[in-house]
């Protein structure tokens, strides 16, 4: 590959966040240029942060990446004179076929001139919707997406699956048509197809101990590009036709999801839930469950590596606990989503009262506009069928906040009640519940808490594997009013040395949050809570949160 640098500009980024890139040019022939951003490193090297191909029509003008990327206010280094932390290049490859945006074959560098240095502009944060199938995003998050766009946020919509068949390309084009219009107005560049297989790929790959095993679904790898102008993520972001299609393996799926999330660093991600359906709380369609699990896995990994990245993961439900969800009468069509009656959604361990509700507002779309968007999926939805009943006057989701590093910890304890399923790991599952909680009605609420095998003392320890800067710890006592922590000790230790401890008084007996806020952030790799005295018979905790 031969690449020509048309313009290289050193820049200093002082505001951490999302940025856009623009430049001015003039050319007598159409070209496709490559806009690339590098991060300078302390070892006199550079790391590629972002690259996008941008078509340059004949003439003069201003071009933009049409996309955003995440840059941080990192230190500057002596090898850059102490003034710069990034480099922005405008380049093109003289031998690479850039796809349909540019005719195949070599291009001539001398016909194009970059007339100004590229300009970085700070943008609003990014929201990202990650769903398995075309239509899931509109069923669950149409109002959410519209509100993001109308708030001048970038809203990326990522489809995990490409359901191969005779209508495959038309299904993907249908999604593009729905999202770019119908009052949703998602730009085409923000609609991403990962290109993985339907039904027999995602969940088997996630559950496999062999992360390189291929799980085919009519085909065994991503599709690259289609002559109608649809490309998969791998093709667009890994040098086009020079990138081999990705095999349907766990490593490929995790790698692609990691790349797209790490590139855009969305502040909020919206996806399907793993707690859906009947009879055993599992999503009726395994692709919904697996999509959630892959997103959860990648966010946990990024939290460990990036430390300060703390996105919120919002999960919602397509399949309810009964065939009557989300409603089956004309009144259900008008009402909000509800628990009970014709809209039964009794799904462990999700607590209906803990959901976050987005109601229709001036910055979103109306219920009828959402219905019109749903009905535009003519291959999936007909007027009056059950999917059209998702066009209510609200949307909802349960939130997992990755500011809490309890989610990524390894948990040990003095003892746990194995026979009743009251394990230590329940104390970091994000659900504040337990025995006596009437909000979970399937009789298994006790499996959301940690309880010692017997007695009124015990300890629980969270190991994060490496140091984190912690601002706050939240402790939640068991919800029943018989067993109550009266006193304890909270201690922590940093990898490489340093330890401290503080005394903790009685926790609220009803399971309400007890907050311990540090005057300044504390560095720790382990956190331990020793219960030194309790009322009742079997001590424990409903939940422990460690906030970075």
Tell me what the structure shows.
With 548 residues, this protein is an alpha+beta fold. The protein has 3 domains: 3-123, Sandwich (Jelly Rolls), CATH 2.60.120; 126-401, Rossmann fold (3-Layer(aba) Sandwich), CATH 3.40.50; 405-547, Jelly Rolls, CATH 2.60.120.260. Helices cover 16% and strands 34% of the residues. The protein has helices spanning 136-150, 168-180, 202-207, 233-237, 250-264, 286-306, 330-334, 367-375; strands at 3-11, 17-27, 31-40, 46-56, 59-64, 69-71, 86-93, 112-114, 119-123, 126-131, 154-161, 191-196, 225-226, 230-231, 268-272, 312-316, 356-359, 394-401, 410-413, 450-451, 458-477, 484-493, 499-504, 513-535, 540-547. The strands form 5 sheets. A 7-stranded mixed β-sheet has the order 12-11-10-15-16-18-17, sandwiched between helices. Strands 19, 20, 21, 22, 23, 24 and 25 form a 7-stranded antiparallel β-sheet that branches. It is globular. The protein starts with a strand and ends with a strand.
